[in-house]
Design goal:
3-stranded antiparallel beta sheet, OsmC/Ohr_fam, OsmC family protein, globular, OsmC/Ohrsf, about 170 residues, OsmC/Ohr_hydroprdx_reductase, alpha+beta, GMP Synthetase, Chain A, domain 3, two-stranded antiparallel ribbon
Length: about 170
């Protein structure tokens, strides 16, 4: 599998060096509120659910959005480890990323405007199983942190623009 990753990324890197316009991509998601605080989201051909724990008014049927942020960070880190290790010929037996986020509900619930509604702190631990030289793995870790897209998104401000569209229910003509 690492060889497939290496070949795929190697080909892509060569293409992007000759045609930099191909490097610009967009991703999209659509999320629809269902019963209670459940949300159904679609990304490409994939569908996944969100919910909140009962403490926050949900049925606890699925992870909540901030839990998906943590999972996304861990998944992105693991993917980037595989990608870079494959390109560099570094053997990894296993990569596990444990993430944790600290959130103060006073911000989310509007109780204290001085408390941010999102995570106040996110920490992660990467556990690598490998017989490679520890210094080589440390350099790999530094490179992963430097280019991991989700780590970049959560650790540095990113411009976000939103707009509201209001639709009226059409009147039934009878």
């Amino acid at each position: 599998m690492s060889e497939f990753v290496k070949q795929s990324l190697g080909t892509l890197i060569q293409e992007l060096k000759t045609d930099t316009e191909k490097a610009k991509v967009s991703f999209e998601a659509t999320s629809v509120l269902e019963e209670g605080v459940r949300v159904n989201s679609n990304v490409r051909q994939f569908e996944f659910k969100f919910d909140e724990p009962q403490l926050l008014g949900g049925q606890d049927d699925a992870p909540n959005p901030v839990e998906y942020v943590l999972a996304s960070l861990g998944a992105c880190q693991a993917i980037v480890y595989r990608a870079l290790a494959s390109l560099k010929g570094i053997q990894l037996e296993n990569v596990t990323v444990k993430t944790k986020g600290d959130l103060n509900l006073q911000g989310f619930l509007g109780i204290d405007s001085n408390v941010r509604p999102g995570y106040e702190k996110i920490t992660f631990e990467t556990i690598i199983v490998s017989d490679e030289d520890p210094e080589k793995l440390q350099r790999l870790a530094e490179q992963v942190d430097a280019i991991c897209p989700v780590l970049d998104i959560v650790s540095r401000p990113v411009k976000v623009e939103g707009k509201l569209t209001i639709q009226r229910t059409p009147e039934v003509v009878g």
